[in-house]
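Exam revision sheet. Question 4 asks you to relate a sequence to its structure. Input first:
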Amino acid sequence: MHKYKICIYLSIYFKHMQVITGDLIGSTKLESKDKPAIISALKELEKNSKGQYDYFIRGDSFQILMANDGLVEALKVKFYLKFRTGYATRISIGIGEINFLDKKLSNSDGPAFWLSGQGLDEMKSLGTLNSIHPENKELEADWHIYASTLDYLERQLTNNQAEVLYWLLMNKTQQEIAKEIGITQSSVNRRIKSTGWDLLQMIIVRYNQLFNK
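Answer key, C-alpha cells:
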C-alpha cells in the first residue's frame, strides 16, 4: 500500500475528496496490441501516486480517488499517457463528499463520484478535454473558465512537450529532465516556454488553495 492510500472499504463518510474520472479519446480505434501499453502506463502512474486507482471499469474508462492534489494527478495522467502511448484523454474531476468507499471505486458512491461521472458524460457530447466540478456551485463558473483554459493549452501540446510537463509535475529540475529524456537543458527550457507552463502553474496553485485540505 502507498503512504496514505485510501483503503477503508466500508460504509463511511468522507468530506472534500477529489474523484478523477477519465477515458481515452478515440478508444473505438484502440487496437488490442495497444492495450497492454496503456495498462502498463496506468500501473506506473499508480505506483508513483498517493491515490487509489481503478481502471478500465467501463471499457476504456478509469477513476482515481485523491485526498489532495487532484488536478496535478489528472495532468500527470494526461501528459504521461500522451507521450507514452500517443492517446489523449478526457478527464473530469468531482470535488465533494463520499458516502461509501469500496475497494473498487466503481462501486463507491457520493457527490464527488456523481459530479465526476456526470461531468465526463457531458464532455463526450461537448468535445472538451477537461472539466472540474466542485460541490460548491458558487465556484463552478470559475472552474469552467479554468478548465477551458486547460483545454486550450492541452490542444497545442506535442508529445515531446507533454513529456517535459510530466517531469515538471514530478518536481524534476530542467537539468534532471534533460538527463531523463536525453536532450540539452536549453532544449528543455525552450519546450517549457512553448507550453504555457506559467499559466498552468497558476491554475494548479488556485486549485490547491481551494480544494486541498
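Marking note for examiners. The CA atoms of residues 20 and 76 lie 12 Å apart.
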